[in-house]
Amino acid sequence: METNGADTSSRAIANRSRGRAGDPTKTRFGALIVDDDDLIRVMLRLALEKDGFEVWAASGGVEAIHLFRRHRGRIDIVLMDVQMPDLDGPQTLDAIRKIEPDCRACFVSGDTGEYTPEDLIRHGAHAVFQKPFRLVDLVDAVRCVVNGERPIAADALRPEFRPAVILPEDLELNTAETVAGIVSS
Prior knowledge:
The protein is built from 8 helices and 6 strands. It has helices spanning 10-17, 38-50, 61-70, 89-99, 117-122, 135-146, 168-173, 176-184; strands at residues 30-34, 54-58, 77-80, 104-109, 127-130, 164-166. Strands 2-1-3-4-5-6 form a 6-stranded mixed β-sheet, sandwiched between helices. The chain starts with 9 loop residues before the first helix and ends with a helix.
């Protein structure tokens, strides 16, 4: 059977067959990647495409808003950096939410600047990923978010591969000290 390099593992096939709530026939999800770092954009694009996502990429907030408006019905999640030269991540998310109020979004950043992970969650992010992270963990978490599921908690992963993943539920259940401990691990 010809696979054209596609991942044919049972996990990948099962993930591709799951539809979005409200659209059980949808088998391919769309992701918009927004990052001013070329290498990060390419790396995320390749990982998500390998997992069956249709991917668009923007180098900044203004370009992301144009792409989102153009492909609105096909983008299920936006993954964006926080610190970017034109519009920062939260400003970009605000503009995208004016177009699509229910847009799912995650921040992926090594430097959140003036924002804390708690600020980003309160701003409406479904998750915050601190660089560095393992691509497989990020892709699994993105898959969970587009399916309306809770991504795996960072403390459930092996410590040597534990990304700093902050989820909205973590802020409701944990103190700021606990969140700071997750970020520093």
